[in-house]
Protein backbone atom coordinates (compact mmCIF):
# COMPACT_ATOMS: atom_id res chain seq x y z
CA UNK A 1 0.00 0.00 0.00
CA UNK A 2 2.83 2.40 0.86
CA UNK A 3 4.56 1.54 -2.39
CA UNK A 4 1.40 2.36 -4.36
CA UNK A 5 1.06 5.77 -2.70
CA UNK A 6 4.71 6.51 -3.27
CA UNK A 7 4.35 5.72 -6.99
CA UNK A 8 1.23 7.86 -7.15
CA UNK A 9 3.03 10.86 -5.62
CA UNK A 10 5.96 10.45 -7.99
CA UNK A 11 3.59 10.36 -10.98
CA UNK A 12 1.76 13.53 -9.87
CA UNK A 13 5.02 15.41 -9.26
CA UNK A 14 6.32 14.36 -12.67
CA UNK A 15 3.20 15.63 -14.40
CA UNK A 16 3.44 18.95 -12.53
CA UNK A 17 7.08 19.33 -13.51
CA UNK A 18 6.26 18.68 -17.16
CA UNK A 19 3.41 21.22 -17.10
CA UNK A 20 5.73 23.88 -15.62
CA UNK A 21 8.90 23.41 -17.65
CA UNK A 22 7.37 22.52 -21.04
CA UNK A 23 6.01 26.08 -21.79
CA UNK A 24 9.31 27.62 -20.68
CA UNK A 25 11.30 25.40 -23.02
CA UNK A 26 8.82 26.03 -25.86
CA UNK A 27 8.91 29.84 -25.51
CA UNK A 28 12.70 29.97 -25.19
CA UNK A 29 13.00 27.89 -28.36
CA UNK A 30 10.71 30.33 -30.22
CA UNK A 31 12.70 33.31 -28.96
CA UNK A 32 15.94 31.78 -30.26
CA UNK A 33 14.41 31.64 -33.74
CA UNK A 34 13.55 35.37 -33.71
CA UNK A 35 15.81 37.47 -35.94
CA UNK A 36 17.44 40.66 -34.76
CA UNK A 37 14.85 42.75 -36.58
CA UNK A 38 11.96 40.72 -35.24
CA UNK A 39 13.28 40.91 -31.68
CA UNK A 40 13.62 44.70 -31.80
CA UNK A 41 10.24 45.17 -33.50
CA UNK A 42 8.63 42.95 -30.85
CA UNK A 43 10.09 45.08 -28.04
CA UNK A 44 9.15 48.35 -29.80
CA UNK A 45 5.62 47.12 -30.46
CA UNK A 46 5.17 46.48 -26.75
CA UNK A 47 6.41 49.98 -25.93
CA UNK A 48 4.29 51.65 -28.61
CA UNK A 49 0.93 50.09 -27.76
CA UNK A 50 -1.36 52.89 -26.60
CA UNK A 51 -4.99 53.21 -25.83
CA UNK A 52 -6.55 55.45 -28.42
CA UNK A 53 -9.94 56.59 -29.49
CA UNK A 54 -10.89 56.40 -33.12
CA UNK A 55 -12.29 59.65 -34.48
CA UNK A 56 -14.12 60.18 -37.71
CA UNK A 57 -12.40 58.04 -40.36
CA UNK A 58 -13.29 56.35 -43.58
CA UNK A 59 -13.78 52.65 -43.14
CA UNK A 60 -14.61 50.04 -45.69
CA UNK A 61 -17.14 48.50 -43.34
CA UNK A 62 -19.07 51.77 -43.24
CA UNK A 63 -18.95 52.04 -47.00
CA UNK A 64 -20.25 48.53 -47.35
CA UNK A 65 -23.08 49.02 -44.87
CA UNK A 66 -24.16 52.35 -46.34
CA UNK A 67 -24.07 51.13 -49.88
CA UNK A 68 -22.13 52.52 -52.82
CA UNK A 69 -23.26 55.98 -53.90
CA UNK A 70 -22.95 57.02 -57.50
CA UNK A 71 -20.60 60.02 -57.50
CA UNK A 72 -21.98 63.31 -58.66
CA UNK A 73 -20.39 64.95 -61.67
CA UNK A 74 -18.69 67.97 -60.13
CA UNK A 75 -16.18 70.22 -61.88
CA UNK A 76 -13.43 71.48 -59.63
CA UNK A 77 -11.34 74.54 -60.37
CA UNK A 78 -7.68 74.98 -59.60
CA UNK A 79 -8.46 77.77 -57.14
CA UNK A 80 -10.32 75.30 -54.90
CA UNK A 81 -7.21 73.16 -54.59
CA UNK A 82 -5.00 76.18 -54.01
CA UNK A 83 -7.25 77.52 -51.27
CA UNK A 84 -7.33 74.15 -49.55
CA UNK A 85 -3.56 73.86 -49.60
CA UNK A 86 -3.06 77.42 -48.37
CA UNK A 87 -5.53 76.78 -45.55
CA UNK A 88 -3.54 73.73 -44.44
CA UNK A 89 -0.21 75.55 -44.69
CA UNK A 90 -1.61 78.46 -42.71
CA UNK A 91 -2.60 76.13 -39.88
CA UNK A 92 0.88 74.56 -39.76
CA UNK A 93 2.74 77.86 -40.14
CA UNK A 94 2.73 78.80 -36.44
CA UNK A 95 3.87 75.38 -35.34
CA UNK A 96 6.74 75.38 -37.81
CA UNK A 97 7.93 78.84 -36.77
CA UNK A 98 8.02 77.88 -33.09
CA UNK A 99 10.25 74.89 -33.88
CA UNK A 100 13.53 74.69 -35.77
CA UNK A 101 15.34 72.69 -38.38
CA UNK A 102 16.96 70.67 -35.62
CA UNK A 103 13.67 68.82 -35.09
CA UNK A 104 13.67 67.80 -38.73
CA UNK A 105 17.27 66.66 -38.51
CA UNK A 106 16.45 64.60 -35.43
CA UNK A 107 13.63 62.96 -37.31
CA UNK A 108 15.95 62.10 -40.16
CA UNK A 109 18.52 60.59 -37.80
CA UNK A 110 15.90 58.40 -36.20
CA UNK A 111 14.60 57.26 -39.56
CA UNK A 112 18.10 56.63 -40.87
CA UNK A 113 18.99 54.62 -37.78
CA UNK A 114 15.82 52.66 -38.25
CA UNK A 115 16.99 51.49 -41.65
CA UNK A 116 20.06 49.93 -40.04
CA UNK A 117 17.81 47.40 -38.34
CA UNK A 118 16.26 46.25 -41.57
CA UNK A 119 17.10 42.64 -42.33
CA UNK A 120 16.65 41.42 -45.85
CA UNK A 121 17.06 37.80 -44.74
CA UNK A 122 14.21 38.26 -42.29
CA UNK A 123 11.97 39.50 -45.10
CA UNK A 124 12.91 36.55 -47.29
CA UNK A 125 12.24 34.07 -44.47
CA UNK A 126 8.82 35.58 -43.84
CA UNK A 127 7.92 35.46 -47.52
CA UNK A 128 9.26 31.92 -47.92
CA UNK A 129 7.12 30.74 -44.97
CA UNK A 130 4.08 32.21 -46.70
CA UNK A 131 4.98 30.49 -49.94
CA UNK A 132 5.53 27.15 -48.22
CA UNK A 133 1.97 27.28 -46.84
CA UNK A 134 0.54 27.46 -50.38
CA UNK A 135 0.39 24.85 -53.11
CA UNK A 136 0.16 24.41 -56.85
CA UNK A 137 -0.32 27.37 -59.14
CA UNK A 138 -0.84 29.74 -56.21
CA UNK A 139 2.65 28.91 -54.93
CA UNK A 140 4.22 29.57 -58.32
CA UNK A 141 2.36 32.87 -58.72
CA UNK A 142 3.41 34.12 -55.32
CA UNK A 143 7.04 33.20 -55.96
CA UNK A 144 6.98 35.52 -58.96
CA UNK A 145 5.30 38.25 -56.90
CA UNK A 146 7.87 37.95 -54.12
CA UNK A 147 10.70 38.27 -56.62
CA UNK A 148 9.14 41.42 -58.09
CA UNK A 149 8.50 42.84 -54.62
CA UNK A 150 12.14 42.30 -53.65
CA UNK A 151 13.24 44.26 -56.72
CA UNK A 152 10.76 47.02 -55.94
CA UNK A 153 11.97 47.12 -52.34
CA UNK A 154 15.58 47.57 -53.36
CA UNK A 155 14.67 50.42 -55.72
CA UNK A 156 12.43 52.17 -53.18
CA UNK A 157 15.13 51.82 -50.50
CA UNK A 158 17.63 53.57 -52.77
CA UNK A 159 15.18 56.42 -53.42
CA UNK A 160 14.37 56.84 -49.71
CA UNK A 161 18.03 56.75 -48.69
CA UNK A 162 18.82 59.36 -51.35
CA UNK A 163 16.11 61.68 -50.01
CA UNK A 164 17.38 61.18 -46.48
CA UNK A 165 20.91 62.17 -47.49
CA UNK A 166 19.60 65.31 -49.23
CA UNK A 167 17.55 66.37 -46.21
CA UNK A 168 20.41 65.50 -43.86
CA UNK A 169 22.53 68.21 -45.47
CA UNK A 170 20.25 70.95 -44.00
CA UNK A 171 22.14 72.45 -41.07
CA UNK A 172 20.08 73.21 -37.94
CA UNK A 173 21.27 76.77 -37.32
CA UNK A 174 21.21 78.02 -40.90
CA UNK A 175 18.41 80.28 -42.08
CA UNK A 176 16.46 78.70 -44.95
CA UNK A 177 14.50 80.54 -47.63
CA UNK A 178 10.71 80.69 -47.65
CA UNK A 179 10.26 78.12 -50.44
CA UNK A 180 12.40 75.60 -48.58
CA UNK A 181 10.38 76.21 -45.41
CA UNK A 182 7.22 75.35 -47.33
CA UNK A 183 8.83 72.14 -48.62
CA UNK A 184 9.94 71.19 -45.12
CA UNK A 185 6.40 71.75 -43.82
CA UNK A 186 5.07 69.37 -46.45
CA UNK A 187 7.71 66.75 -45.61
CA UNK A 188 6.99 66.79 -41.88
CA UNK A 189 4.02 64.44 -42.34
CA UNK A 190 4.98 62.90 -45.68
CA UNK A 191 5.46 59.34 -44.40
CA UNK A 192 2.43 59.50 -42.11
CA UNK A 193 0.23 60.51 -45.06
CA UNK A 194 1.69 57.73 -47.21
CA UNK A 195 0.93 55.17 -44.51
CA UNK A 196 -2.63 56.45 -44.16
CA UNK A 197 -3.08 56.13 -47.92
CA UNK A 198 -1.80 52.56 -47.71
CA UNK A 199 -4.41 51.74 -45.07
CA UNK A 200 -7.18 53.14 -47.28
CA UNK A 201 -5.99 51.10 -50.27
CA UNK A 202 -5.75 47.94 -48.18
CA UNK A 203 -9.32 48.39 -46.91
CA UNK A 204 -10.47 48.92 -50.47
CA UNK A 205 -8.97 45.62 -51.56
CA UNK A 206 -10.57 43.90 -48.57
CA UNK A 207 -13.96 45.21 -49.67
CA UNK A 208 -13.55 43.31 -52.97
CA UNK A 209 -13.07 39.93 -51.26
CA UNK A 210 -16.06 37.61 -50.78
CA UNK A 211 -17.69 37.79 -47.32
CA UNK A 212 -16.16 35.35 -44.87
CA UNK A 213 -13.09 34.75 -47.01
CA UNK A 214 -10.10 33.39 -45.07
CA UNK A 215 -7.45 33.38 -47.78
CA UNK A 216 -3.84 34.12 -46.96
CA UNK A 217 -4.05 37.47 -48.77
CA UNK A 218 -7.01 38.60 -46.64
CA UNK A 219 -5.22 37.62 -43.45
CA UNK A 220 -2.08 39.36 -44.59
CA UNK A 221 -3.90 42.60 -45.45
CA UNK A 222 -5.70 42.65 -42.10
CA UNK A 223 -2.41 42.08 -40.31
CA UNK A 224 -0.70 44.86 -42.26
CA UNK A 225 -3.57 47.28 -41.53
CA UNK A 226 -3.25 46.62 -37.81
CA UNK A 227 0.52 47.06 -37.91
CA UNK A 228 0.40 50.35 -39.83
CA UNK A 229 -2.44 51.81 -37.77
CA UNK A 230 -0.57 50.93 -34.59
CA UNK A 231 2.61 52.54 -35.98
CA UNK A 232 0.90 55.86 -36.77
CA UNK A 233 -1.39 56.00 -33.72
CA UNK A 234 -0.72 59.18 -31.81
CA UNK A 235 1.90 60.36 -34.35
CA UNK A 236 1.47 63.95 -35.59
CA UNK A 237 4.75 64.17 -37.52
CA UNK A 238 7.25 61.79 -39.04
CA UNK A 239 9.66 62.18 -36.13
CA UNK A 240 7.03 60.58 -33.85
CA UNK A 241 7.18 57.30 -35.78
CA UNK A 242 9.00 54.30 -34.32
CA UNK A 243 12.09 52.83 -35.96
CA UNK A 244 10.17 49.90 -37.37
CA UNK A 245 7.57 52.12 -39.09
CA UNK A 246 9.55 52.26 -42.35
CA UNK A 247 9.82 48.46 -42.40
CA UNK A 248 6.07 48.13 -41.85
CA UNK A 249 5.50 50.64 -44.61
CA UNK A 250 7.43 48.45 -47.06
CA UNK A 251 5.70 45.30 -45.84
CA UNK A 252 2.36 46.96 -46.50
CA UNK A 253 3.49 48.00 -49.98
CA UNK A 254 4.45 44.37 -50.67
CA UNK A 255 1.00 43.18 -49.61
CA UNK A 256 -0.70 45.85 -51.70
CA UNK A 257 1.34 44.75 -54.70
CA UNK A 258 0.00 41.21 -54.26
CA UNK A 259 -3.53 42.52 -53.93
CA UNK A 260 -3.25 44.60 -57.10
CA UNK A 261 -2.38 41.44 -59.03
CA UNK A 262 -5.18 39.49 -57.42
CA UNK A 263 -7.75 42.23 -58.17
CA UNK A 264 -6.68 43.90 -61.45
CA UNK A 265 -10.11 45.51 -62.16
CA UNK A 266 -9.38 49.24 -62.11
CA UNK A 267 -12.93 50.37 -62.87
CA UNK A 268 -14.36 49.02 -59.62
CA UNK A 269 -11.48 50.52 -57.70
CA UNK A 270 -12.08 53.90 -59.38
CA UNK A 271 -15.79 53.80 -58.57
CA UNK A 272 -15.09 52.96 -54.95
CA UNK A 273 -12.51 55.73 -54.60
CA UNK A 274 -14.87 58.25 -56.16
CA UNK A 275 -17.56 57.27 -53.71
CA UNK A 276 -15.17 57.65 -50.79
CA UNK A 277 -13.97 61.01 -52.15
CA UNK A 278 -17.53 62.27 -52.44
CA UNK A 279 -18.37 61.23 -48.89
CA UNK A 280 -15.17 62.82 -47.59
CA UNK A 281 -15.87 66.10 -49.40
CA UNK A 282 -19.37 66.18 -47.93
CA UNK A 283 -17.91 65.68 -44.45
CA UNK A 284 -15.34 68.44 -45.04
CA UNK A 285 -17.99 70.88 -46.27
CA UNK A 286 -20.18 70.11 -43.27
CA UNK A 287 -17.27 70.56 -40.86
CA UNK A 288 -16.25 73.87 -42.47
CA UNK A 289 -19.79 75.20 -42.14
CA UNK A 290 -19.90 74.17 -38.51
CA UNK A 291 -16.50 75.75 -37.78
CA UNK A 292 -17.54 78.98 -39.50
CA UNK A 293 -20.77 79.12 -37.52
CA UNK A 294 -19.02 78.47 -34.21
CA UNK A 295 -16.36 81.11 -34.95
CA UNK A 296 -18.98 83.75 -35.72
CA UNK A 297 -20.96 82.71 -32.64
CA UNK A 298 -17.86 83.11 -30.47
CA UNK A 299 -17.10 86.50 -32.06
CA UNK A 300 -20.60 87.87 -31.40
CA UNK A 301 -20.85 86.56 -27.83
CA UNK A 302 -19.59 88.50 -24.82
CA UNK A 303 -17.04 86.42 -22.88
CA UNK A 304 -18.01 85.51 -19.34
CA UNK A 305 -15.04 87.40 -17.89
CA UNK A 306 -15.94 90.67 -19.63
CA UNK A 307 -19.55 90.37 -18.51
CA UNK A 308 -18.38 89.82 -14.92
CA UNK A 309 -16.07 92.85 -15.16
CA UNK A 310 -18.87 95.10 -16.40
CA UNK A 311 -21.20 93.98 -13.60
CA UNK A 312 -18.59 94.68 -10.90
CA UNK A 313 -17.71 98.12 -12.27
CA UNK A 314 -21.35 99.07 -12.74
CA UNK A 315 -22.18 98.22 -9.13
CA UNK A 316 -19.24 100.27 -7.87
CA UNK A 317 -20.13 103.23 -10.09
CA UNK A 318 -23.66 103.56 -8.71
CA UNK A 319 -22.24 103.33 -5.19
CA UNK A 320 -20.25 106.54 -5.80
CA UNK A 321 -21.40 110.00 -4.85
CA UNK A 322 -22.35 112.09 -7.94
CA UNK A 323 -19.43 114.44 -7.29
CA UNK A 324 -17.00 111.51 -7.38
CA UNK A 325 -18.11 110.57 -10.88
CA UNK A 326 -16.50 113.63 -12.49
CA UNK A 327 -13.27 113.44 -14.52
CA UNK A 328 -10.54 116.09 -14.09
CA UNK A 329 -9.35 118.65 -16.68
CA UNK A 330 -12.72 118.87 -18.42
CA UNK A 331 -11.84 122.40 -19.63
CA UNK A 332 -9.55 120.80 -22.26
CA UNK A 333 -12.37 118.92 -24.00
CA UNK A 334 -13.16 121.74 -26.45
CA UNK A 335 -9.65 123.09 -27.06
CA UNK A 336 -8.96 122.73 -30.84
CA UNK A 337 -5.21 123.20 -30.31
CA UNK A 338 -4.86 119.82 -28.56
CA UNK A 339 -4.72 116.34 -30.06
CA UNK A 340 -8.22 114.86 -29.91
CA UNK A 341 -8.80 111.12 -30.30
CA UNK A 342 -12.12 109.28 -30.27
CA UNK A 343 -13.13 105.63 -29.85
CA UNK A 344 -16.68 104.27 -29.90
CA UNK A 345 -16.91 101.01 -27.96
CA UNK A 346 -19.07 98.91 -25.65
CA UNK A 347 -16.03 96.87 -24.51
CA UNK A 348 -14.22 98.02 -21.36
CA UNK A 349 -10.92 96.22 -22.00
CA UNK A 350 -10.81 97.09 -25.70
CA UNK A 351 -11.25 100.82 -25.11
CA UNK A 352 -8.70 100.61 -22.27
CA UNK A 353 -6.02 99.22 -24.58
CA UNK A 354 -6.66 101.93 -27.18
CA UNK A 355 -6.31 104.67 -24.58
CA UNK A 356 -3.33 103.15 -22.73
CA UNK A 357 -1.35 102.39 -25.88
CA UNK A 358 -1.91 105.87 -27.32
CA UNK A 359 -0.91 107.69 -24.14
CA UNK A 360 2.09 105.47 -23.30
CA UNK A 361 3.66 105.95 -26.76
CA UNK A 362 3.00 109.71 -26.98
CA UNK A 363 5.82 112.23 -26.70
CA UNK A 364 3.48 114.85 -25.21
CA UNK A 365 0.69 112.95 -23.38
CA UNK A 366 -0.48 116.13 -21.63
CA UNK A 367 -1.75 117.40 -25.01
CA UNK A 368 -3.91 114.32 -25.63
CA UNK A 369 -7.67 114.41 -25.11
CA UNK A 370 -9.54 111.11 -25.42
CA UNK A 371 -13.28 110.94 -26.13
CA UNK A 372 -14.79 107.52 -25.34
CA UNK A 373 -18.41 107.04 -26.44
CA UNK A 374 -20.35 103.95 -25.39
CA UNK A 375 -23.95 102.83 -24.98
CA UNK A 376 -26.11 103.43 -21.93
CA UNK A 377 -25.70 99.84 -20.70
CA UNK A 378 -21.91 100.01 -20.52
CA UNK A 379 -21.54 103.70 -19.64
CA UNK A 380 -21.28 103.11 -15.84
CA UNK A 381 -18.67 100.33 -16.27
CA UNK A 382 -16.48 102.29 -18.71
CA UNK A 383 -16.69 105.42 -16.55
CA UNK A 384 -15.79 103.53 -13.38
CA UNK A 385 -12.81 101.86 -15.03
CA UNK A 386 -11.25 105.15 -16.12
CA UNK A 387 -12.03 106.74 -12.74
CA UNK A 388 -10.03 103.94 -11.12
CA UNK A 389 -7.38 103.86 -13.88
CA UNK A 390 -6.86 107.43 -15.19
CA UNK A 391 -4.71 107.70 -18.36
CA UNK A 392 -1.73 109.50 -16.84
CA UNK A 393 -1.31 113.12 -17.94
CA UNK A 394 -3.92 112.81 -20.72
CA UNK A 395 -7.51 114.03 -20.43
CA UNK A 396 -10.42 111.66 -20.88
CA UNK A 397 -14.15 112.05 -21.43
CA UNK A 398 -16.70 109.23 -21.32
CA UNK A 399 -20.08 109.82 -22.98
CA UNK A 400 -23.20 107.77 -23.54
CA UNK A 401 -24.85 107.69 -26.93
CA UNK A 402 -28.13 108.34 -25.12
CA UNK A 403 -26.87 111.79 -24.14
CA UNK A 404 -26.98 112.94 -27.78
CA UNK A 405 -30.57 114.20 -27.87
CA UNK A 406 -30.21 115.48 -31.43
CA UNK A 407 -29.26 111.96 -32.58
CA UNK A 408 -32.37 110.26 -31.17
CA UNK A 409 -34.76 112.91 -32.52
CA UNK A 410 -33.33 113.54 -36.00
CA UNK A 411 -31.54 110.36 -37.08
CA UNK A 412 -32.79 107.45 -34.98
CA UNK A 413 -34.99 106.03 -37.74
CA UNK A 414 -32.24 106.32 -40.33
CA UNK A 415 -29.77 104.38 -38.15
CA UNK A 416 -31.89 101.23 -38.11
CA UNK A 417 -30.08 98.55 -40.11
CA UNK A 418 -31.59 95.41 -41.60
CA UNK A 419 -28.90 93.06 -40.31
CA UNK A 420 -28.82 90.23 -37.78
CA UNK A 421 -25.17 90.93 -36.98
CA UNK A 422 -24.92 93.32 -34.00
CA UNK A 423 -21.64 94.69 -35.36
CA UNK A 424 -23.56 96.14 -38.32
CA UNK A 425 -26.84 96.98 -36.59
CA UNK A 426 -25.21 98.79 -33.65
CA UNK A 427 -25.66 102.55 -33.55
CA UNK A 428 -22.08 102.86 -32.31
CA UNK A 429 -20.92 101.46 -35.64
CA UNK A 430 -22.61 104.29 -37.58
CA UNK A 431 -21.88 107.03 -35.07
CA UNK A 432 -18.66 107.81 -36.99
CA UNK A 433 -20.71 109.63 -39.64
CA UNK A 434 -21.83 112.25 -37.07
CA UNK A 435 -18.42 113.45 -35.87
CA UNK A 436 -19.06 117.16 -36.68
CA UNK A 437 -22.24 117.08 -34.62
CA UNK A 438 -20.63 115.21 -31.70
CA UNK A 439 -17.62 117.55 -31.56
CA UNK A 440 -18.89 120.93 -32.84
CA UNK A 441 -15.91 122.93 -31.51
CA UNK A 442 -13.13 120.76 -32.97
CA UNK A 443 -11.38 121.18 -36.31
CA UNK A 444 -9.69 117.77 -36.59
CA UNK A 445 -10.04 114.43 -34.87
CA UNK A 446 -8.51 110.96 -35.13
CA UNK A 447 -11.04 108.14 -34.92
CA UNK A 448 -9.94 104.70 -33.73
CA UNK A 449 -11.78 101.41 -33.90
CA UNK A 450 -11.72 99.67 -30.53
CA UNK A 451 -9.67 96.74 -31.87
CA UNK A 452 -6.47 98.69 -32.57
CA UNK A 453 -3.20 99.13 -30.69
CA UNK A 454 -1.05 102.26 -31.03
CA UNK A 455 2.68 101.47 -31.10
CA UNK A 456 4.29 104.82 -31.98
CA UNK A 457 3.86 108.53 -31.33
CA UNK A 458 1.20 109.99 -33.64
CA UNK A 459 2.19 113.65 -33.48
CA UNK A 460 3.32 113.76 -37.13
CA UNK A 461 -0.09 112.50 -38.22
CA UNK A 462 -1.66 115.85 -37.30
CA UNK A 463 0.62 117.79 -39.68
CA UNK A 464 -0.27 115.76 -42.80
CA UNK A 465 -1.47 117.83 -45.75
CA UNK A 466 -5.09 116.82 -46.35
CA UNK A 467 -5.11 118.50 -49.83
CA UNK A 468 -8.68 119.70 -49.36
CA UNK A 469 -9.92 116.18 -48.61
CA UNK A 470 -11.99 115.14 -45.60
CA UNK A 471 -10.61 111.72 -44.71
CA UNK A 472 -7.04 110.40 -44.40
CA UNK A 473 -6.78 106.60 -44.44
CA UNK A 474 -4.61 103.67 -45.51
CA UNK A 475 -5.53 102.20 -48.89
CA UNK A 476 -6.63 98.57 -49.33
CA UNK A 477 -6.60 98.34 -53.13
CA UNK A 478 -3.20 96.64 -53.59
CA UNK A 479 -3.59 93.01 -54.66
CA UNK A 480 -0.30 91.97 -53.07
CA UNK A 481 -1.59 92.72 -49.56
CA UNK A 482 -3.85 90.58 -47.38
CA UNK A 483 -6.13 93.57 -46.73
CA UNK A 484 -7.01 93.88 -50.44
CA UNK A 485 -10.64 94.81 -51.19
CA UNK A 486 -12.52 95.72 -54.36
CA UNK A 487 -15.50 98.04 -54.39
CA UNK A 488 -17.59 95.67 -56.49
CA UNK A 489 -17.23 92.99 -53.79
CA UNK A 490 -19.27 95.18 -51.40
CA UNK A 491 -21.25 97.45 -53.73
CA UNK A 492 -23.84 96.41 -56.33
CA UNK A 493 -22.58 97.95 -59.58
CA UNK A 494 -25.37 96.31 -61.57
CA UNK A 495 -27.66 99.04 -60.24
CA UNK A 496 -27.71 102.02 -62.67
CA UNK A 497 -27.62 104.53 -59.82
CA UNK A 498 -24.35 103.06 -58.49
CA UNK A 499 -22.73 102.44 -61.88
CA UNK A 500 -23.33 106.07 -62.92
CA UNK A 501 -21.74 107.66 -59.84
CA UNK A 502 -18.91 105.31 -58.83
CA UNK A 503 -16.14 103.31 -60.50
CA UNK A 504 -15.64 99.64 -59.66
CA UNK A 505 -11.85 99.96 -59.89
CA UNK A 506 -11.64 102.94 -57.55
CA UNK A 507 -9.15 102.50 -54.74
CA UNK A 508 -10.63 101.35 -51.43
CA UNK A 509 -9.44 102.28 -47.93
CA UNK A 510 -9.86 101.09 -44.37
CA UNK A 511 -11.51 102.26 -41.20
CA UNK A 512 -9.60 101.69 -37.96
CA UNK A 513 -7.41 104.79 -37.82
CA UNK A 514 -8.68 107.81 -39.72
CA UNK A 515 -7.87 111.51 -39.54
CA UNK A 516 -10.94 113.65 -40.32
CA UNK A 517 -10.96 117.34 -41.22
CA UNK A 518 -14.20 118.35 -39.52
CA UNK A 519 -14.18 121.85 -40.98
CA UNK A 520 -14.11 120.51 -44.54
CA UNK A 521 -16.70 117.91 -43.56
CA UNK A 522 -19.10 120.61 -42.44
CA UNK A 523 -18.43 122.70 -45.54
CA UNK A 524 -19.31 119.79 -47.85
CA UNK A 525 -22.23 118.69 -45.64
CA UNK A 526 -21.22 115.01 -45.84
CA UNK A 527 -23.56 113.86 -43.07
CA UNK A 528 -26.47 114.68 -45.40
CA UNK A 529 -24.75 112.76 -48.20
CA UNK A 530 -24.40 109.77 -45.87
CA UNK A 531 -28.10 109.85 -44.99
CA UNK A 532 -29.05 109.96 -48.65
CA UNK A 533 -27.07 106.81 -49.44
CA UNK A 534 -28.24 105.09 -46.25
CA UNK A 535 -31.90 105.55 -47.13
CA UNK A 536 -31.34 104.40 -50.72
CA UNK A 537 -29.60 101.26 -49.44
CA UNK A 538 -32.55 100.49 -47.18
CA UNK A 539 -34.93 100.61 -50.16
CA UNK A 540 -32.97 98.36 -52.52
CA UNK A 541 -29.80 96.21 -52.27
CA UNK A 542 -27.05 98.64 -53.23
CA UNK A 543 -24.32 97.38 -50.84
CA UNK A 544 -23.70 94.90 -48.08
CA UNK A 545 -24.54 95.72 -44.47
CA UNK A 546 -22.04 97.66 -42.42
CA UNK A 547 -20.41 101.06 -42.36
CA UNK A 548 -17.45 100.33 -44.69
CA UNK A 549 -19.25 100.48 -48.09
CA UNK A 550 -21.23 103.50 -46.88
CA UNK A 551 -17.94 105.14 -45.96
CA UNK A 552 -16.53 104.43 -49.43
CA UNK A 553 -19.44 106.12 -51.18
CA UNK A 554 -19.76 108.98 -48.69
CA UNK A 555 -16.06 109.90 -48.88
CA UNK A 556 -15.71 108.97 -52.56
CA UNK A 557 -12.92 111.14 -54.05
CA UNK A 558 -12.66 112.87 -50.68
CA UNK A 559 -9.96 110.63 -49.15
CA UNK A 560 -6.20 111.18 -49.07
CA UNK A 561 -3.95 108.09 -48.87
CA UNK A 562 -1.68 107.54 -45.88
CA UNK A 563 1.57 105.61 -45.94
CA UNK A 564 0.82 101.98 -45.10
CA UNK A 565 3.24 102.15 -42.17
CA UNK A 566 0.73 104.29 -40.31
CA UNK A 567 -1.84 101.51 -40.11
CA UNK A 568 -1.46 97.76 -40.74
CA UNK A 569 -4.46 95.44 -40.93
CA UNK A 570 -5.17 91.73 -40.79
CA UNK A 571 -4.21 90.71 -37.24
CA UNK A 572 -7.75 89.49 -36.57
CA UNK A 573 -7.93 87.02 -39.45
CA UNK A 574 -4.45 86.48 -40.92
CA UNK A 575 -1.78 84.59 -38.95
CA UNK A 576 0.87 85.17 -41.60
CA UNK A 577 1.23 88.95 -41.23
CA UNK A 578 4.97 89.69 -41.45
CA UNK A 579 6.41 90.47 -38.03
CA UNK A 580 8.66 93.22 -39.43
CA UNK A 581 5.59 95.01 -40.85
CA UNK A 582 3.88 94.78 -37.47
CA UNK A 583 6.87 96.13 -35.57
CA UNK A 584 7.31 99.21 -37.76
CA UNK A 585 3.61 100.08 -37.97
CA UNK A 586 2.32 103.02 -35.93
CA UNK A 587 -1.08 101.37 -35.45
CA UNK A 588 -1.95 97.67 -35.72
CA UNK A 589 -5.53 96.60 -36.35
CA UNK A 590 -7.22 93.35 -35.29
CA UNK A 591 -9.89 93.59 -37.96
CA UNK A 592 -11.78 90.34 -38.46
CA UNK A 593 -13.59 88.09 -36.00
CA UNK A 594 -10.54 86.74 -34.11
CA UNK A 595 -10.23 89.56 -31.61
CA UNK A 596 -7.34 89.46 -29.12
CA UNK A 597 -9.64 89.41 -26.08
CA UNK A 598 -11.40 86.25 -27.34
CA UNK A 599 -10.22 82.66 -26.99
CA UNK A 600 -10.33 82.34 -30.79
CA UNK A 601 -7.82 85.16 -31.21
CA UNK A 602 -4.59 84.41 -33.06
CA UNK A 603 -2.06 83.49 -30.41
CA UNK A 604 1.03 84.93 -32.07
CA UNK A 605 -0.63 88.38 -32.29
CA UNK A 606 -2.15 88.57 -28.80
CA UNK A 607 1.00 89.80 -27.09
CA UNK A 608 0.87 93.18 -28.84
CA UNK A 609 -2.54 93.78 -27.28
CA UNK A 610 -2.24 92.12 -23.86
CA UNK A 611 0.85 94.08 -22.79
CA UNK A 612 -1.37 97.16 -22.36
CA UNK A 613 -3.72 95.35 -19.95
CA UNK A 614 -2.87 95.22 -16.25
CA UNK A 615 -3.86 91.65 -15.46
CA UNK A 616 -2.80 92.17 -11.83
CA UNK A 617 -5.83 94.42 -11.33
CA UNK A 618 -8.15 93.00 -8.66
CA UNK A 619 -11.23 93.36 -10.86
CA UNK A 620 -9.66 91.27 -13.62
CA UNK A 621 -8.45 88.61 -11.20
CA UNK A 622 -11.87 88.29 -9.57
CA UNK A 623 -13.38 87.76 -13.02
CA UNK A 624 -10.67 85.24 -13.97
CA UNK A 625 -9.35 87.34 -16.85
CA UNK A 626 -5.78 86.37 -17.66
CA UNK A 627 -3.28 86.99 -20.45
Write up this protein.
The strands form two sheets. Strands 3-2-1-4-7-6-8 form a seven-stranded mixed β-sheet. A three-stranded mixed β-sheet has the order 5-10-9. Helix 9 runs antiparallel to helix 10 and helix 9 (190-208) packs parallel to helix 11. The protein is 55% helix and 7% strand. The protein is an alpha/beta fold and 627 residues long.
What integer is the average pLDDT? Answer: 78
**Number of distinct helices:** 26
Helix content: 40-55%
Q: Kindly state the number of beta strands.
A: 10
Shape: elongated
Strand order of the largest sheet: 3-2-1-4-7-6-8
SS class? alpha/beta
Q: Roughly what fraction of the amino acids lie in strands?
A: 5-15%
User: Can you summarize the main beta sheet?
Assistant: 7 strands, mixed
Question: Rg from C-alpha positions?
Answer: 35 Å
Rounded to the nearest angstrom, the distance between the terminal CA atoms is 89 Å
Uncertain runs are: 46-142, 167-178
Amino acid sequence: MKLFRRCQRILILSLLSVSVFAPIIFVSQRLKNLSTTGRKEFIEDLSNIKYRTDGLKLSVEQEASEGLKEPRKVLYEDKDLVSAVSYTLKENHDAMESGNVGDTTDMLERTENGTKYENQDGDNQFQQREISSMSGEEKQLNQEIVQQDQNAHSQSRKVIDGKLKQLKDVKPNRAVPHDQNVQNMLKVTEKINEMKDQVVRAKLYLSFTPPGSKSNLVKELKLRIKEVERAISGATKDSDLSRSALQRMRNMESSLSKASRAYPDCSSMTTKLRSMTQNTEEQVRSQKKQVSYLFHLAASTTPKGLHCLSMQLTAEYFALDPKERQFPNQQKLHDPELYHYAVFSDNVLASTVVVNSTVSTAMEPEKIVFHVVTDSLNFPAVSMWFLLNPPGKATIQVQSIESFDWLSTKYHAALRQNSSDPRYASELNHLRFYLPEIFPTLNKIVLFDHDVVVQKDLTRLWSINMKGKVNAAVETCHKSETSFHRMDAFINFSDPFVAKRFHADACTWAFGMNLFDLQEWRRQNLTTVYHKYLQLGNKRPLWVAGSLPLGWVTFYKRTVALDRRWHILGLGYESGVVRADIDRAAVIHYDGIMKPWLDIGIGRHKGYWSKYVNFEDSHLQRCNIHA
